[in-house]
Amino acid sequence: MDVPDLLRHAADLVPADERSDAGLGADDVREYLHHHEWEVALGILEDFDGIRWQTVRFWGLLIEAAQQMWLANDVAWLQWRRSETLHGLIRADLRLVAPDAGGRRSPIPGNGQLRPMWSIHRTATESHDELHVARIRVESAPEIPPGGHGPIRLLPLTPSHWRHLEPGDTLTMHEQNPVAATATITQIEHPPHRRRPPGQTPCRWAG
After folding, report:
1. Is there a contact between 189 and 207 (Cβ–Cβ < 8 Å)?
2. Same-domain status, 49 and 110
3. Per the structure, how many domains does the chain have?
4. Of 60, 55, 51, 76, whose CA–CA distance to 6 is shortest?
5. Same domain, residue pair 34 and 113
6. Are residues 127 and 171 in the same domain?
7. Which helix (H) or strand (E) holds 138?
8. pLDDT digits over 99-123, tens only?
9. Can you give the C-alpha Rg of the chain in angstroms?
10. Which domain CATH number covers 147?
11. Residues 79, 103 within the same domain
């Protein structure tokens, strides 16, 4: 399929009443496609938040369209969103320790390549705190400067180990001693196939 067909098929998977963060819907995507504004149409489809209805097929169509348009940054972002659909969405507010207090002296890059260790309040059999790997993607900025703070998304290497967490929990990030940063969970969503049936007792992890 060519780019317009890929984006039309993706628009057909958007529920009629869904709106992007900018308040746009599937009909707006089709309108921009009619005017050959492919990148604008892709941008609208990328802007639907959460993992409530998005499927692996939806993200696959967008990834292929972005690849055909040679939009490498969009491809990386869409691959991240596909992983969230499969494994869950975790958002947090990250606060870096100041460099003069032992914190990192380089920024946190925003592109999702950094994979630090995290204390997520799980205890190993030897009664010491386990550390778990999760990638960081900075939201609404290209990076977080040394000693700074900002919103992030996390993709754990082993998502099942993070299911006990809930909004308000505080994690610690470890690259070396001492602690490099703290992160307070602001949003967690389960992937669709792990959502609770109606009436089931809720667990602590919401994502």
Report:
1. yes
2. no
3. 2
4. 60
5. no
6. yes
7. strand 129-138
8. 999 899 999 999 999 999 999 976 5
9. 19
10. 2.40.30.10
11. no
